[in-house]
Amino acid sequence: MRNGIYCYPLTVCDMKTRFLFGIDAHDTVSFAMTKQCFTRLFEEYGLPQRIRSDNGVPFASNAIAFVYTSSPRKIPGKLGHFDYPLHFQVRRVSGNNSCIRWKNEFVFVSRALAGEYIGLEQRGDGVYDVYFCELLIGRFMEDNLRIGDIIERLPLRQIYNRRGSMNPE
Question: What share of the chain is helix, strand, coil (3-state, %, to 5)?
């Protein structure tokens, strides 16, 4: 708030495109102010298919409860078996170090995928797209033995204030 007083920031963005829908600085924990901000954003951009929250106070706990309803579906503890296409190289992510073996070297994948199988589809000489089931999760570069992010980093967008006028960055 640029006045030295502590604030509670509410930032709403699209995690895939990194588009910033809105940012508000609240001086107190307030359900009413948070609901007002989300309502304004939903009216302007529509309701999202999913809402991901950091589960932090004050916004995640109560403020979006007015739009969230839990699914009645049972969630399995483990995904069923997935058959990768025949041209994929399939590797199991180790439960010990969250890596796969590649030409006698260890390549870190993700702790979240420990014990799961991933598929690697060759795209070029030493370049592979990495899949978990049908989800493209990264690109493996054989020369540096790393799996990189496949989401292109977008330039920062100009930020709009509440009245709709543009603030230069």
Answer: 15, 30, 55
The reply to whether 153 falls in a domain is no
What sign does the CA torsion over 136, 82, 117, 49 have? positive
Judgement on whether residues 62 and 14 belong to the same structural domain of the protein: yes
CA distance 18 to 92: 31
pLDDT tens column, 54-85 = 545 544 444 444 455 555 656 556 666 788 99
Residue whose pair of structure tokens reads 């060759």 in the numeric block: 122
Model pTM?
0.47
Q: What residue has token string 């899949």?
A: 131
Residue-number span of the structural domain to which 121 is assigned: 89-148
**CB burial string 25-46: b at 16+ within 10 A, e below:** ebeeeeeebbbebbeebeeeee
Do 58 and 93 share a domain, yes or no?
A: no
